[in-house]
Amino acid sequence: MTVVLRPAAVQDVAELRQLYFDVYGHGYPVPLGSDPAVMRRLISDGTAHWLTARTGRGDLVGSAVVQTDAGSRVGKLVGLAVHPVHRGGGLASRLTGAVCGEAFGTGRLDSVYATVRVVTEGPQNVVVRNGFRPLGLMPNAVEVEGCETLALFARYADGVLERRAPVERIPQRLAALLSAAASGIGIDYAGAGRIATPPEPRVVTGAEPIELIAAPAFVRRRFLERFPGAGDRFFPLHTPNSLLVAADGGFEAYADLDPVAGSCALVAVHPRPAAVAGALEALMTAVTRAGADYAEALLPLADAEALDVFLASGFVPSAVYPAMRRIGDRFHDYVVLSRTSRQIDFRTTAVSALLQPYLRAYLTAWTATYLPLHEVSR
Q1: In a 3-state reduction of DSSP, which class is residue 218?
Q2: What is residue 197's predicted lDDT score, i.e. its pLDDT?
Q3: Where are the alpha helices (DSSP H) in 147-296?
């Protein structure tokens, strides 16, 4: 059957919502497939490349989107959906290739990433066939049909990986993850020195309790006041809607908290990420009470102080994103650290061969964090 790809239009919104319902039921946690206002804005304001697939009879049977963030030169592949009746013919791969080709063709993106479900290997195969490389696993990252693990992949513009800034020293607890990156992406971190991570979290007196302010408009204004320069803000495609404040005023943590998806992204900390030292346990309690069982932080690989704080407070290295951020003519690596309050169960995941090194790396890091050998030997 002939299928034609074309840009999404505002008049497609009702059919697109039906498509996402047919594919995901009521479990799709992304407003892009369920909120008409968000969908119309993305189609109209130029911040997304959105392609649809229609049959010769005009039936809408597929959709794929690359959301963009002009300030970061990073895009995200989202909303890939093919109607169940039309699966198996390569349409998902064709949509992915076309929408990514269009996005990179503008010259305004250095990379596009995708967080892929691992309930089957199909979605993993689709992105790999279209030039995406595996970057890691994020257990319990989203609530779709139950609590699910996501895999992180990225595709790069030509020449980006060759212009990475070198990293001189990295925490020892990242060694397994970076070793997985060496096999999955072909980047060798063997030359970087290792820093031993303190086994016990550091405590800051007066950091508790944590006050959570869920007032999106106020939080956004405050965020821009605290981080007025675009170069001071870097967590692509995440806008904070909640503010976590230490009662003693020691820090302000800005979060993109989504109770529907059960997740929270810690977007930024004022005055600096390491300021949450000793308070992350209380912060995670506040996040969990707000409905998020999973939290993640995105930190520069070169920021050993911040990595030390999060690693010493129960966050586990989950993914590495080489050459994520452009500063001048160099690209800098970032690390995703995550923490979940739910039991992790990998029995229902279909981890492809490309992701196996990351699964082993996560298990190694989790064991070092929550099951220290000196505890086992007692």
Answers
A1: helix
A2: 59
A3: 175-184, 216-226, 280-289
> What is the distance between the alpha carbons of residues 338 and 295, in angstroms, rounded to a whole number?
6
The model's pTM = 0.93
Report whether 104 contacts 157 (CB < 8 A). yes
Torsional sign, CA 47, 49, 54, 56: positive
Question: For residues 72 and 88, what is the distance between their CA atoms, to the nearest angstrom?
Answer: 35
**Per-residue pLDDT at 373:** 61
Query: Do 235 and 337 meet the contact criterion of CB atoms below 8 Å apart?
Result: no
Tokens representing 347 are: 């029995």
Note the pLDDT of residue 46.
Answer: 87
Question: Would you state the pLDDT for residue 66?
Answer: 98
pLDDT at 97: 98
- CA nearest neighbour of 52 among 3, 106, 112: 3
Concatenate the DSSP letters of all residues of 171-201 into one string. EGGGHHHHHHHHHHT----TTSEEEPPPSS-
The span from the CA of 59 to the CA of 172, in Å, is 53
**Closest by Cα among 370, 358, 343 to 174:** 358
Torsion on CA atoms 20, 40, 111, 221, rounded to nearest 10 = -120
Q: Write down the residue that tokens 């979940």 correspond to.
A: 340
Q: Do the Cβ atoms of 10 and 40 come closer than 8 Å? A: yes
> What DSSP line would sit under 337-369, residue for residue?
EEEESSPP--TT----TTTHHHHHHHHHHHHHH
CB atoms < 10 A from the CB of 142, how many? Answer: 21
Residue 1 has a pLDDT of 64
CB count in 10 Å sphere of residue 59: 15
Rounded-to-integer distance, Cα 291 and Cα 24, Å: 22
d(CA 296, CA 311): 12
Across the chain, the runs of DSSP E, i.e. the strands, are: 3-7, 48-55, 60-69, 74-82, 111-117, 133-144, 146-156, 169-171, 193-195, 210-213, 242-246, 252-258, 263-270, 294-300, 316-327, 330-340
pLDDT in the model for residue 372: 67
Q: Residue 206 has what pLDDT?
A: 43
Sites in the chain below the pLDDT cut of 50? 201-207, 376-378
